[in-house]
Amino acid sequence: MIDRRSLCAAGAILTLVLLSQQARADEAAVKIDNFTFIPETITVKPGTVVKWTNEDDIPHSIVGTDGKIHSKAIDTNEDFSFTFSEPGTYNYFCGLHPHMKGKIIVAP
Amino acid sequence: MTQDTHDRRTVLECMVWAGTGLLWTIAGGVPQSSLLGIGEANAQAATGFNFLQISDSHIGFKQAANPNPLGTLQEAVGKVGTLTTRPAFMIHTGDISHLSRPAEFDDAEKIISSAKLDVHYVPGEHDIVDEGRGADYMNRFGKKLQAQGTGWYSFDHAGVHFVGLVNVADLKAGGMGSLGAAQLAWLADDLKSKSSSTPLVIFAHIPLWTVNADWGWGTDDATQALDLVKRFGSVTVLNGHIHQIMQKVEGAVTFHTARSTAFPQPAPGTAPSPGPLKVPDDKLRSVLGITSIAVRQGTQPLAVIDGTLA
């Protein structure tokens, strides 16, 4: 017979696993490599946290064309995160190297 | 009878040296390559006055291409003392720091000031990434230079008009360097009272000519600035940013980029991106350097002689 404590523990673990999967679904990653945002365009759900990680040997930054996003300089192996709550299309570029462009599409 | 303005044409000789002593001379029309000792380089610049260009010291950079940019800046500034002709002053064409941090500016200034020369700075994009987006640069350097806007200004020395421009602020998505309408209006006004025979030296961080659009190595509205200097008989444009020597002559305008004192960057098209180039340790100093420019009064036409260190 299965005891109640084991059942409770299994339930708790299952809940944690589901929660962490839920958390993962709300995150998206953009890599900065060779002066390029990879992927250049991503589509995410509202509430998603987008995390940029700089893999170049030179700092970059994230500047939204609408002026709402303006990161600090992201140095080598550093990252910057921004939560996209509202649906819409967010164009951005690197404030140091503006020829680098990217786009976040937030859609339900 | 009025004096022919050509009699007063100033010849700019431009020497670039690093390591073994490379000479670039602006004198004659046909670009030539030559490797010369420092002594010969100085011998050719005996008249007029000299000034130095230093660029892209990137204090705070820690990556493999040069983990010690403070050390190589120290070596570069140490070269100043070996020159037989004492430079009148120094210009720094930006990227003093790597991340606009106070300690980086402090360290850079400490070494650069050891040359005991007046320094005329313009900011690079790395110098205005503080929270105030360039406020610290303006407090430290701009104020002293009586700079306007994001850091532009002009001054005169021995009959030559020097203009320091900023093309790293308020950059636009998909674009390259940018001067902006306010600065262009200021430039038009600044040049208004200058006679066409006044030699001009214009310096800014990003090249004012398009070296490589794919890498953003150019300035979107440079043409508007160059239109303003068309009537001048001698224009020398000095830039940094691309960490290598590039040169172009267009009419009376000579464009010229300086080496970095910190690390080299690849030649356009030779790498997937313009990121720092790692060269063997024993080769690093052969791709870093500073520039000495000799302004000579004379009647020779403006010309350029350049060479590589290879």
Keywords:
heterodimer, A: 108 residues, alpha/beta, 4-stranded mixed beta sheet, 1 helix, B: alpha/beta, Purple Acid Phosphatase, chain A, domain 2, 6-stranded mixed beta sheet, 6 helices, 18% helix, disordered C terminus
Verbal overview:
The complex is a heterodimer of chains A (108) and B (310). With 108 residues, chain A is α/β, with parallel strands linked by helices. Helices cover 20% and strands 38% of the residues of chain A. Chain A has one helix spanning 4-25; strands at 27-33, 36-38, 41-44, 48-54, 63-64, 79-84, 88-93, 101-106. In chain A, strands 2-1-4-6 form a 4-stranded mixed sheet. Chain A has a 4-stranded mixed sheet with strand order 3-8-7-5, with no helix packed on it. Chain A is globular and about 60 Å long. The termini of chain A are far apart. In chain A, 28% of the residues are buried. Residues 16-23 of chain A have low confidence and may be disordered. Chain B has 310 residues and is of the alpha/beta class. Chain B has a single domain (16-297), classed as Metallo-dependent phosphatases (Purple Acid Phosphatase, chain A, domain 2, 4-Layer Sandwich). Helices cover 18% and strands 18% of the residues of chain B. Chain B has helices at 38-43, 69-80, 102-112, 135-142, 181-192, 222-228, and strands at 10-17, 49-54, 90-92, 119-121, 153-157, 160-164, 200-203, 235-239, 246-250, 253-257, 290-297. A 6-stranded mixed sheet of chain B has the order 5-6-7-8-10-9, with no helix packed on it. A 5-stranded mixed sheet of chain B has the order 1-11-2-3-4. In chain B, β5 (153-157) and β6 (160-164) form a beta hairpin. In chain B, α2 runs parallel beside α3. The relative contact order of chain B is 0.23.
